[in-house]
User: Which sequence fits this backbone?
């Protein structure tokens, strides 16, 4: 999996469901060699499959801990290898917009995006607002130039 991944779409397009499927595949594929932390800004407690969860109020603390893990791994090894003792960390942020507006949280996300691949910390963000002015420029570049999954609008079906 790449170090950063962005999932975009309008409200009710299935972004949260896409994250849940991604988490399930990662856990099925890698078992205990991956741990998943999640930040849910809109509806805490909705995502399934998380090993650790935080809401918007706890986001900076969780991001700080993820950044500390990444920093420690970088300081002790040139090439991190995931294991059951030191699993890869998948950090998912469902509804990234409030964190993008927070300078401290955005800085931590930027750090994780830069060092993610070498430290075994990967970040997946969902966002409905992908306008350039809604994102810090450095994060916009990192996430919009990497893998982006754009979900189509869900149109109501008529029976």
Assistant:
């Amino acid at each position: 999996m790449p170090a950063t991944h962005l999932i975009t779409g309008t409200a009710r397009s299935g972004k949260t469901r896409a994250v849940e499927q991604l988490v399930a595949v990662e856990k099925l594929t890698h078992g205990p060699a991956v741990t998943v932390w999640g930040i849910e800004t809109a509806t805490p407690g909705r995502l399934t499959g998380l090993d650790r969860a935080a809401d918007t109020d706890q986001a900076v603390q969780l991001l700080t801990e993820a950044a500390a893990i990444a920093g420690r791994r970088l300081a002790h090894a040139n090439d991190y290898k995931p294991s059951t003792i030191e699993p890869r960390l998948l950090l998912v942020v469902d509804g990234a917009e409030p964190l993008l507006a927070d300078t401290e949280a955005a800085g931590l996300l930027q750090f994780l995006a830069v060092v993610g691949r070498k430290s075994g910390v990967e970040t997946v963000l969902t966002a409905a607002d992908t306008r350039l002015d809604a994102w810090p420029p450095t994060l916009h570049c990192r996430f919009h130039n990497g893998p982006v999954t754009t979900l189509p609008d869900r149109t109501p079906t008529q029976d």
The first helix runs from residue 15 to 30.
